[in-house]
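Consider the following input, taken from an annotated entry for Sec translocon accessory complex subunit YajC (Sphingomonas sediminicola).
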Amino acid sequence: MTDILLQTLAAASANPNSASGIFFALAPWLLIFVIFYVLMIRPQQQRVKQHQAAIAAIKKGDEVVTGGGIRGRVTKVTDDEAEVEIAQGVKVRVVKGTLSQVLTKSAKPAND
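Applying the prediction step yields:
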């Protein structure tokens, strides 16, 4: 890929009007980067922000899925951890960052 870029720069610099030649040689690369950013990078950044907001807003009673695929209901929330009931009477503490999905949201405040 760098060989192609160097060849296009060399061809552009051989032109008498080298400033415009370099611009026209780099324009397709810039266009490819802009398209890549719009179609790939920006949507991924938005998904990450939405996921972080959902994890930060979990409350008591929300159903969540952990990174390991365990599904349960939140019974207690602290700053960086949540207590999740995965079966009747079986509660585990998980780090909020390991939660992969929030399935339902309840209106109850945390730690009632």
